[in-house]
Amino acid sequence: MSIQTIHVTASRDYDVLIGSGLLKETGKHLRAVHAPCRVAVISDSNVAALYMDTVLASLKEEGFETLPFRFPAGERSKTLDVVSGMLDFIANHHLTRTDLIVALGGGVTGDMAGFAAATYLRGIDYVQIPTTLLAAVDSSVGGKTAVDLRAGKNLVGAFKQPLCVLCDIDTFDTLPEEVFRDGCAECIKYGVLESPSLLKIFSEGTAKEHIADVVAESVRIKADYVAKDEFDTGVRRFLNLGHTIGHAVERTAKYSLMHGHCVAIGMVMISRAGEKLGLTEPGTTDALIRICETNGLPVSCDYSAEALLESALSDKKRRGEQITLILPKKLGACMEHTVPVSELESILRLGKETSV
Ligand SMILES: NC(=O)c1ccc[n+]([C@@H]2O[C@H](COP(=O)([O-])OP(=O)(O)OC[C@H]3O[C@@H](n4cnc5c(N)ncnc54)[C@H](O)[C@@H]3O)[C@@H](O)[C@H]2O)c1
Ligand SMILES: [Zn+2]
Description:
This protein is an alpha/beta fold. The protein has two domains: 4-175, Rossmann fold (3-Layer(aba) Sandwich); 178-352, Dehydroquinate synthase-like, alpha domain (Up-down Bundle). It is 44% helix and 21% strand. It contains 13 helices and eleven strands. The chain has helices at 26-31, 45-61, 80-92, 107-119, 133-139, 177-194, 196-204, 211-228, 243-252, 259-276, 284-294, 305-313, 344-352; strands at 4-8, 14-19, 38-44, 65-71, 100-105, 125-130, 144-149, 152-159, 164-168, 322-330, 333-340. The strands form three sheets. A seven-stranded mixed β-sheet has the order 1-2-9-6-5-3-4, sandwiched between helices. A hairpin with a 5-residue loop joins strand 1 (4-8) and strand 2. Helix 5 (133-139) runs parallel beside helix 8 (211-228) and helix 10 (259-276) runs antiparallel to helix 11. The protein is globular, with a radius of gyration of 20 Å. 49% of the residues are buried. The mean pLDDT is 96. The structure holds nicotinamide-adenine-dinucleotide and zinc ion.
């Protein structure tokens, strides 16, 4: 199968390679962007068991010295403590600024290894090898890295663009179904933002058959926003479609619901509110609900508007402030809608009610 390459323009340009069988060519692709060196390969326990050996063997073949580091899988590992152990490991093996870190795994691995790369010796190069759909289409591209604090998720981090991103679509074959679906929500988000081709694939429920194109189109869209607004002070906020309400659902559920699932609920709610405010084309919400359901994603939650508001307000927002929401004008085109935070409750109410 051919490799699709998406170029990302940022403070440091790089390519995202998407294709089948890339893992066993890791060494060759790294060799194209970096001289042989020592490579700390960071992976969680699940992914390491499946793919670490392939990556290490391929790197060794091309003359790289490999140093595997594993941590327990799961968001609970995304802490300064675990990163501290990672940094000690890297320092004890005397990596220098001409060496490399490889993040082999989902968004948790990418965020942690990226943060280690951003901070070790004030920054060394790293490569992203995403193994979840969410990591492939979202977290591995764009340079945001972070860890969680007890006070909240992703509160400490840095912008650090990778040297390249290698996305082997075969790794998705071992993903638990709900983890795959979680990534679909972010792809549907790109569709709602601007992609008729993604909307078509997800309407037909054929994402798996077209997965390389799904990833390539999603990455192309993300890369476009990153090129325009690398440090997230402007248009990159369009990528937050479904996220203001989605984060509120996530927090209200005490993180028992997966992120992408909450984003699906958030997109449906903001679309419904948009229709009732006359900002969103009638019928958009019904069409979006069908797309989400076709792909096994939830479209509603039982939490009250009051409970969701409380969670939304705990997210650094204050009643007197303005908040910019992203909402669909129709499927494939979105707009910003800035309101005082005090209006958020009525928007949540409009988003929840099913009767128009
Ligand atoms: N930096 C960014 O721009 C950005 C963007 C979106 C999300 N994120 C972060 O990404 C994280 C979520 O990412 P995620 O959903 O990939 O989580 P994850 O990394 O925890 O992966 C989900 C689960 O799938 C397993 N897994 C990964 N690849 C597998 C494979 N190929 N086969 C079998 N199992 C596999 C993992 O071990 C884990 O149990 C969150 O921490 C979020 O904050 C960051
Ligand atoms: Zn998201």
